[in-house]
Amino acid sequence: MKLPLRISLGMAGIILIASPLCILVTLLLLPFRSWLEETTGIESVGHSWIVA
User: How far apart are CA 42 and CA 34, in angstroms?
Assistant: First the structure.
């Protein structure tokens, strides 16, 4: 197999494997991020349009 094709297929495989993993990690960290937002007041989960 030619090198550019092999590199392209390798990159596509990495993306296909990494995408679901990234979504899973994001969902698993949601409780921590919610706690962090409540504790520090730094927006990390949702957007707030309340103007003080």
Answer: 10
Nearest to 33 by CA among 22, 41, 44, 23: 44
- Give every CB contact of residue 33 below 8 A, 6+ residues apart in sequence: 44, 45
pLDDT higher than threshold 90 for residue 43: no
How far is residue 24 from each of residues 15, 28, 30, 31, measured CA to CA in Å?
A: 14, 6, 10, 13
CA 26 to chain centre: 5
What does the block give as tokens for 21? 């993993």
Tokens encoding 44: 């990390």
Q: Please say if the pLDDT value at position 5 is more than 90.
A: yes
DSSP assignment, residue 52?
-
